[in-house]
């Protein structure tokens, strides 16, 4: 058997020894992750947190965040996501419409309550209570939130075609105004993104109660139209602009589903469809409970994403997948980042969308004139 090094020890034994200090009970979360999260999925959380702080949050990295699952009803908008936005650790977002709809409840001063999963849903229905696993809320919360969205989208500024980012920016302004009127602070992710200039996209505008209310207003003459094609081009433009400005692009994925693909497909849109030379995202962090062997996108690995051009093959050492419930992993990642890194400068990518689109269009014309 050949030796792996001059000392005769295999190169595979070069990792740090597993020799943690006993947990005392007074550690901060970041210290616990560094010292005790040493192997298995705890080890992946440590690797993801350290990658996030040491590389992803460098000043020249544009951070895209995708979100799926019922995160905001569980309070993760207030506890984890708004602090990340306020620290400028997130530059643009793709999420489900449901995340934004349920987020809006809090900005309107409406309540979600802790409950239990093992109760009779028939009885809950009879008593006007809606359940999201172990979260309970009154049916009137839905009706009040529906009424809010129908009211604001009657405004003149909504009567035109627009990207989902522009739509959410306008909605976020109204939610922030309602927060102020109610004396509330930092309750709504949508409002926080409005203030920070973080563009928020949804990959399936019709697949939520927000989209349902937009559709209802269309029946009575509203001229609001959400444009998926503009969303596709705007998100690709934000990534290309980050790279052409001498920086890098990071994909941070919480959950999976359509938002994950919408974030990652920016690179195939640039390379495959628009014919622009590019290599893929530079960093990839995912928190998921989906398995890769079922073939679904939610569990697809970063190495599989390389084959699509979504991730730069040279960047594979800077990719981490944590197989963990997002409601566990996201607060840990946020706590680590906020403890270990100072706030970054604010990018306000929302304000740069048109310039980024102009750059994308110009490069497309030069790279693939035959496709026009």
Give the overall pLDDT as a whole number: 92
* Number of E-type strands: 11
Radius of gyration, whole Å? 22 Å
What is the name of the CATH superfamily of the domain at 27-107 and 185-208 and 226-366? Deoxyhypusine synthase
Shape: globular
Assess the beta-strand content as a share of residues: 5-15%
- Return the CATH class of the domain at 27-107 and 185-208 and 226-366: Alpha Beta
Largest sheet, in brief, is: 6 strands, parallel
The secondary structure category is alpha/beta
Please list the strands of the largest sheet in the order they lie side by side. 7-2-1-9-10-11
Distance between the termini: 61 Å
Task: Give the SSE string.
Answer: HHEHEHEHEEHEHHEHEHEHHEHEHH
Task: Please count the helical segments.
Answer: 15
Could you say what the CATH topology of the domain at 27-107 and 185-208 and 226-366 is called? Deoxyhypusine Synthase
């Amino acid at each position: 058997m050949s030796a792996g090094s001059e000392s005769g020890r295999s190169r595979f034994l070069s990792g740090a020894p597993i020799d943690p200090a006993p947990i005392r009970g007074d550690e901060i979360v970041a210290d616990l992750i560094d010292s005790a999260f040493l192997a298995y999925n705890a080890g992946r959380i440590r690797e993801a947190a350290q990658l996030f702080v040491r590389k992803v949050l460098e000043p020249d990295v544009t951070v895209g965040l995708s979100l799926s699952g019922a995160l905001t009803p569980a309070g993760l908008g207030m506890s984890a996501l708004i602090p990340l936005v306020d620290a400028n650790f997130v530059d643009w977002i793709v999420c489900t419409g449901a995340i934004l709809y349920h987020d809006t409840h809090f900005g309107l001063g409406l309540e979600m309550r802790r409950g239990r999963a093992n109760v009779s849903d028939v009885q809950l229905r009879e008593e006007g209570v809606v359940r999201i696993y172990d979260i309970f809320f009154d049916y009137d919360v839905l009706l009040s939130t529906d009424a809010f969205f129908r009211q604001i989208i009657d405004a003149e500024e909504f009567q035109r075609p627009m990207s989902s980012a522009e739509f959410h920016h306008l909605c976020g302004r109204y939610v922030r105004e309602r927060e102020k009127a109610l004396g509330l602070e930092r309750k709504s992710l949508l409002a926080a993104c409005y203030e920070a200039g973080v563009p928020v996209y949804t990959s399936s505008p019709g697949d939520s109660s927000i989209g349902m209310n937009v559709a209802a207003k269309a029946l009575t003459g509203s001229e609001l139209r959400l444009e998926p094609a503009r969303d596709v081009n705007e998100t690709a433009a934000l990534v290309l602009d980050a790279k052409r400005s001498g920086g890098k692009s990071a994909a941070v994925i919480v959950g999976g589903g359509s938002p994950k693909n919408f974030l990652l497909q920016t690179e195939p849109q640039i390379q495959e469809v628009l014919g622009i030379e590019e290599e893929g995202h530079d960093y990839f962090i995912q928190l998921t409970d989906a398995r890769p062997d079922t073939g679904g996108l939610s569990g697809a690995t970063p190495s599989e994403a390389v084959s699509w051009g979504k991730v730069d093959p040279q960047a594979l050492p800077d990719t981490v997948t944590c197989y963990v419930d997002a409601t566990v992993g996201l607060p840990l990642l946020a706590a680590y980042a906020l403890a270990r890194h100072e706030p970054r400068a604010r990018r306000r990518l929302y304000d740069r969308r048109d310039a980024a689109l102009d750059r994308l269009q110009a490069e497309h014309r030069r790279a693939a004139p035959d496709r026009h």
